[in-house]
Design goal:
The complex is a heterodimer of chains A (447) and B (315). Chain A contains 17 helices and 17 strands. Chain A is α/β, with parallel strands linked by helices and 447 residues long. Chain B has 315 residues and is α/β, with parallel strands linked by helices. Chain B has a single domain, classed as Dihydropteroate synthase-like (TIM Barrel, Alpha-Beta Barrel). In chain B, helix 3 links the parallel strand 4 and strand 5. The radius of gyration of chain B is 19 Å and the shape is globular. Classes of the chains: A alpha/beta (447), B alpha/beta (315).
Chain lengths: 447, 315
């Protein structure tokens, strides 16, 4: 739990020397409690007080970064169990895996598949985050494959329980900050030593949370902070239970030995069924997995997972926004209908998919309206005639269509008169109330 | 520091709702914990899959879907039997799409005859959804309710516009009502209150929270359902303790990502698997936020979700 100003005050020298820049120790304590001052400003604070304050201020779950540069990803630092309490912080990373014993061609293909799983949706980049290289050959081959992946600028998870293999691979790519998986009860000392020597994050794997906590404490005692945990579940139910317990222990009980991001391998519980693996990966995403290792990065499995992740990690208070511009849906010609609506991402997705389903090409104008849905945006003054008119005039749509009809959502029929006054030369058509009826509406108008 | 399992003990429970015939009843609900939190509560009845059957051959479905369903598409009775016998459906959800006044505008009598024939053909419970037109649904569901009196159906959607006549029909003939509200905790509660005030027992209501698929509002549905479930369990709020029914098939197969062919979207991969995944990942997300009855469409998505439900229950 965070300390109160008074708790902190008790730990300060209480000399009111003012050297920290605040006249009294009490006032300084209050500032510390609110995060407006740093403890280092006090020259006289005891080491004991420093340690106590540091542990109280430490986030309940560590952030861990894997990789370097633009392709690196950070996970962890989560603060809640339910997304309605507060936005989830660092989106889970999804990646694929490859055996080092595979042929060079297969390895190149795995790298290419990971790179190809790179999508854009509502102005966010959604991509395969890493490749896990599993040591299935000798140590030299493991190092060689790891180097190949790192050279392709893809973050690496090194999967081996053999310290000699880990040593070989880390010797080659430690500077790329791979995640080493895993320290277990049988190899912990050697793996902890290696992670320390090469300053790379380390995954700890043990069956059950008690054994896992004992190992993370050992690693923490050795000075490691960048840890990831793996409770080695054998069913989806065990995975759920372990993840819920670990998150609750870390956040509600401040149990530091489990205050680390979770890595999962849904293939281990899917019996070789890649579709079932994807379903379990979704379950891991929802209940507290942070690094989710799939068997491959095929687009049909990455796309639903990455889009679900985008949904789950959005701010529940602030809607996602689509880019305000003209979208050409189908291949609209100069006669194609022109429709406008707001930039609430859900509105955009629903209207655009209804147009696609109707198979009537259209121009869809998305007007900047702070991510609000049609009625809310209208009520808040964000989807009003001036804004819509400005959008239409600035959008260049007049050069694309030969007609001058703009279709507005039926929900804001009341603005049609005023919009017509604002939009010189345009005819304002009140469309249907529901997006689902748009296809039928334009077909009827055309006939 | 010693580790102890941080269990919690919710005080509330979800109601049990019984559907189907007295010979073969199916109970949904009854949970005393969040979904699959079996370490601190019970889930006496696993979530059930109600596979969809349309009363007339649906149009505009992607090939990946129609191929999997096969030639029963235009024959509701055969479709229902295939769902139960071949695909392991726990229930059938009849969608009376043809009654839509903006479409074929089929009569209430013909809709009721279709439901009757399906009830006679399968020995699992039957859920009946109207076309979503509040006025027409009132007429259609009333006819359905009075035609099938030997089994307990779930009929809906009852909305704030038509809950009174639909509740009255359910009351008269012993059915369960599906109470549909637009993704909102308080509106869901309010409709349950209004329906129980008409004399309907609280264990004869299913909540339809109006869900969205992955990429199409999943986050809203997920969170509203999670909040409804938390209110039911932790605050013991009686008007949130009804089991939830979610229309996954309809939402998932509307998504562009589920429908696009490989020619249209080459970067999105295998269209058949992608469509199934869209439905299955939507389904598992909603199961994990509290769904008790999953209305689903593709047999392969159903197989995956049923397997995953068993996997999650294995602790």
């Amino acid at each position: 739990m965070a300390l109160t100003g008074l708790d902190i005050f008790k730990l300060l020298p209480k000399t009111n020397c003012g050297e920290c820049g605040t006249p009294t120790c009490l006032a300084f304590a209050m500032k510390l409690a609110q995060g407006q001052a740093e403890l280092t400003l006090c020259p006289y604070v005891s080491d004991e007080a420093k340690a106590q304050l540091a542990s109280a201020a430490a986030p309940p779950m560590r952030a861990v970064t894997v990789g370097v540069g633009d392709s690196a990803f950070t996970v962890g630092e989560e603060t809640v169990l339910f997304r309605h309490d507060k936005t989830f912080v660092n989106p889970a990373a999804f990646g694929a895996s490859i055996d080092s014993g595979a042929s060079d061609g297969e390895i190149d293909a795995a790298i290419a598949a990971c790179k190809a799983a790179d999508f854009e949706r509502v102005q966010q980049r959604l991509r395969c985050g890493f490749l896990a290289v599993r040591s299935t050959g000798d140590a030299a081959r493991f190092a060689e494959v790891a180097s190949k992946v790192a050279a392709a600028d893809v973050p690496v998870v090194l999967v081996t329980e053999d310290p000699a293999h880990a040593e070989a691979a880390l010797g080659a790519i430690a500077s790329s900050k791979p995640l080493l998986h895993a320290a277990t009860e049988s190899n912990a000392d050697a793996m902890i030593e290696l992670a320390k020597k090469h300053s790379v994050p380390l995954a700890i794997r043990a069956k059950g949370l008690e054994a896992l906590s004992a190992l993370t404490e050992k690693a923490a005692d050795a000075g490691l902070t960048d840890l990831v945990i793996d409770s080695a579940p054998t069913t989806a139910g065990e995975a759920l239970r372990d993840h819920v317990f670990a998150r609750r222990a870390a956040l509600n009980q401040k149990f530091a030995p489990l205050g680390y991001p979770v890595i999962t391998f849904p293939a281990e519980i899917s019996g070789g069924d890649q579709m079932l693996e994807t379903v379990y990966a979704t379950a891991d995403l929802l209940k507290y997995g942070s690094i989710i290792v799939l068997s491959s990065a095929e687009a049909w499995q990455m796309l639903p997972l990455l889009v679900a992740r985008q949904n789950i990690y959005t701010d529940p208070q602030r809607p996602m926004q689509a880019e305000a511009k003209i979208y050409e849906i189908g291949t609209p010609g100069p006669d194609a209908p022109f429709v406008v609506t707001t930039n609430f991402s859900l509105t955009y997705f629903i209207v655009s998919s209804e147009i696609e389903t109707a198979k009537v090409p259209m121009y869809l104008g998305i007007v900047e309206s702070e991510g609000l849905s049609v009625l809310t945006a209208w009520a808040a003054g964000k989807f009003v005639p001036e804004r819509i008119a400005k959008f239409v005039n600035d959008s260049g749509i007049a050069e694309k269509v030969s007609h001058r009809d703009v279709i507005i959502p039926g929900a804001v029929a009341q603005i049609s008169g005023e919009l017509k006054e604002e939009l010189d030369g345009w005819n304002v058509v009140v469309g249907p109330y529901e997006a689902a009826d748009l296809g039928a509406f334009v077909k009827k108008r055309a006939s | 520091m010693a580790y102890n399992n941080p269990t919690e003990s919710p005080s509330g429970a979800i109601r049990e709702v019984t559907l189907g015939s007295s010979a073969n009843p199916v109970v949904v609900g009854g949970e005393t914990s969040l979904p699959f939190y079996l370490f601190e509560g019970a889930m006496p009845h696993k979530p059930k899959v109600a596979m969809e059957v349309f009363d007339a051959a649906p149009e505009g479905w992607p090939e990946a879907l129609t191929d999997a369903i096969g030639d029963v598409l235009g024959d509701p009775v055969a479709w229902a039997k295939a769902n139960v016998e071949k695909h392991g459906a726990d229930m059938i959800c009849v969608v009376l799409a043809s009654t839509d006044p903006n479409g074929a505008d089929a009569s209430a009598e013909s809709a009721a005859a279709t439901v009757r024939a399906i009830v006679d053909a399968v020995d699992v419970p039957v859920v009946v959804y109207g076309s979503g037109n509040a006025e027409k649904d009132t007429e259609v569901l009333k006819k359905v309710a009075e035609t099938v009196t030997d089994e307990r159906l779930a009929i809906g959607p009852a909305t704030e516009d038509n809950y009174k006549p639909i509740t009255a029909a359910a009351l008269g003939y012993g059915h369960v009502v599906i109470a549909e509200t637009p993704i909102d905790v308080n509106m869901a509660k309010q409709l349950n209150i209004l329906m129980t005030q008409l004399g309907l027992d609280a264990d004869r209501i299913l909540i339809d929270p109006s869900v969205g698929a992955v990429g199409y509002g999943l986050e809203y549905a997920y969170t509203v359902m999670e909040r409804l479930r938390l209110a039911a369990l932790n605050q013991n709020d009686g008007m949130t303790q009804m089991p939830m029914i979610v229309t996954i098939g309809r939402e998932a197969w509307r998504a562009k990502e589920a429908r696009a062919t490989e020619e249209e979207e080459p970067a999105w991969g295998d269209a058949a698997k992608r469509g199934v995944m869209w439905e299955a990942s939507t389904a598992i997300s909603l199961v994990m936020s509290g769904a008790d009855v999953l209305v689903m469409r593709h047999p392969e998505a159903v197989r995956l979700v049923k397997t995953a439900i068993d996997g999650l229950a294995s602790q």
